Amino acid sequence: MGPVPSRTRRRGLPATPARTARKLGEIRRAQLITTYGVGAMIAVENESFLVRGIDSWDISKAPVISEPRLARQLGVSGFRMPPAPDPDSAQDGVRAVRFPEMYSCPHCHQLQPFRRFNSPAGRAECSNCQESLVPSRFVIACAHGHLEDFPYWKWVHRGNRTGSGGCGGQLTFQADGSTASLRAVLIGCSCGVDKVSMEGSFRRQALRDLGIRCGGRRPWLKDSPAESCQEPPRTLQRGSSSVWFPVMYSALSIPPWSQGIARLVAPYYDIFKEEDSTSIKTYVRMQKLLLHHPNYTEDDVAAEVERRRAAEAATVEPADGTEATKRAGDYRRELYEGEYRSLSKPHPEVAEEEQEFVCEPPTTPIDALRSSQGLAQVMLVKRLREVRALQSFRRVEEPSPADSLQREAAISLAKPSWLPAFEVSGEGVFVRLAPERLRIWEEQPEQVARAGRIRKNHEKLLSARASDSDKPVPPSPATPRFLLLHALAHILINEWSLDGGYPAASLRERLYSEEDMAGVLIYTATSDSAGSLGGVVAQGEPDRLQASLRSALHRASWCSNDPLCMESEASGADSLNMAACHTCLLLPETSCENNNILLDRAALVGTPDGQVSGFFTR
Questions:
Q1: Three-class SS state of 59
Q2: Dihedrals phi, psi of 138, to nearest 5 degrees
Q3: Number of C-alpha atoms within 13 angstroms, CB side, residue 554?
Q4: How far is it, in rounded angstroms, from Cα 430 to Cα 439?
Q5: Cβ contact 304:284 at 8 Å
Q6: Whole-number Cα distances in Å, 165 to 74, 99, 154, 191
Q7: Range with the poorest average pLDDT among 21-25, 99-103, 111-115, 321-325
Q8: 445-482 confidence digits (pLDDT tens)
Q9: Residue pair 254/338 in contact by the 8 Å Cβ criterion
Q10: Which of 14, 268, 501, 599 makes an SS bond possible with 580, Cβ 3.0 to 4.6 Å?
Q11: Which positions ≥6 away from 90 have C-beta within 8 Å?
């Protein structure tokens, strides 16, 4: 095999003609919510761009997504899928802005804003060397969401009191590639100062020691003024996950919102909500909306619109700055209570209706599971729909229920009336534990003590995150019940990924542990082929569920990291786990709704010495 040929320089190539909207690249709609949402950086070939706010998107052809329960909780009128216009008929959709602005040439090593390279239209290359430019590898961000280019000039001229750029020199960026450390990345200036490596730039106090403060910039929001910010900035790699953490909320579509007249009215509600009853009936009659729905009348449509109006009016917008607290607390309680009630009741499939939620008990009894494993109910969710919406994002530190409003990076300049979202369909299995057996188990002093250690560490972390806010510290959900349900969901996902053929990353958990709820929903809701093929529902049949649960508990009884794993007093990030590690309980981050924290394997199987009994211990 011969050596890799050197890069061919692109001298003399004709320039790409300028267009009103340059097509940069293509990504899936779901990625604009989960991976490359508003404020996130995306690499396109040898360039880097920042996805702009939703107020700059062209949503004229963006499909509307209806999920009234979630919209009411988030204080918006509805949701839209990210626009994906036909390239033959439109050149616009989701907009982006170049970021970072600093680029370097790998041949002449110049480091300067992109516009000074005088690149040909549509390309990013040095006008002198015809080499492809490289976006800056480093940016600075603060925990309040602001984002800027790394201050290279101040970094290399440390100790020099001249104003930024006052020396008149040309910055250079050179990485010799001899090592992977920051010591091999050298920043220089033609004014004659000594070259400085990037070593030490990631220290928490590195920028503050040089007098560098946060500039309050939000480049993803067009015409956004700089904000006053006292939060210290941090140096980050451009591709680091700490640059962008999405804050997403989701809800399952459940009856009555997912069927009948409510499902029929949903696509037209934005048209109807400002009209009177007569206008609504006239529209229904002229557009023949009930042509294929003879069971409903124009009066039914008008009554449904009025019911939705009353539900929206009942949602009062908090005026005392507690909106984030409401979303973190009431959001979960109100949405999950409705889902729990729907999952606990049969909703059989009706042949003549289009249903988004079908939930039925197994055809065979679950007596063996009830007596031996303490399961009170098993429901086969043969069809479900989930809506996931992007509400905001964070930088530097991952989202926390204790975050203040200042840490909430906005996705639009003004308060949005809609949010970007996407919907997925899938299937799942709902398992509910026997309440009496659970109550006796969770009141044992040993269980309370183990959960108390995790809760103490979690409350300490929440208090630290809420220290710059006036709102109360949210309570930690770390109770014996929550630890048990969370660990149960993880071992079943791991087991079904082996037995059912589904990758663990395509399965998700949904925990119902508040107040009198005690259930787990394990479901697949993805946009790929692992969506709704019936494999997960098959795992919920009593005989197969009993076998998989027995096997999962057997695997959980011993970890290859034992006895260290089981005897650990605290493990995981910020000591928010007990007996849990990558070998036994942890899942891909797409599967766990709690970021792989608040886990304890002993809640399932107990400790080997018998001092702590597990819920499933015989």
A1: coil
A2: -125, 140
A3: 7
A4: 20
A5: no
A6: 45, 20, 9, 10
A7: 321-325
A8: 999 999 999 999 999 999 988 877 667 888 899 999 99
A9: yes
A10: 599
A11: 58, 61
